[in-house]
Design goal:
mainly alpha
Length: 45
């Protein structure tokens, strides 16, 4: 994806917001994975 400098400058706030959302999503996914693994350890089938 190629952006013109004007679009890049205008979109920097959006990029930061997107990066923050991505980081939140990663942290949420990681926390969920850890809690599921923890639960699986405690309750073996």
């Amino acid at each position: 994806m190629i952006l013109s400098p004007g679009k890049v400058a205008k979109g920097k706030g959006d990029v930061r917001r997107g990066a923050a959302e991505a980081a939140n999503w990663i942290v949420r996914g990681y926390s969920m994975m850890i809690s599921l693994a923890d639960r699986a350890e405690r309750f073996p089938r």
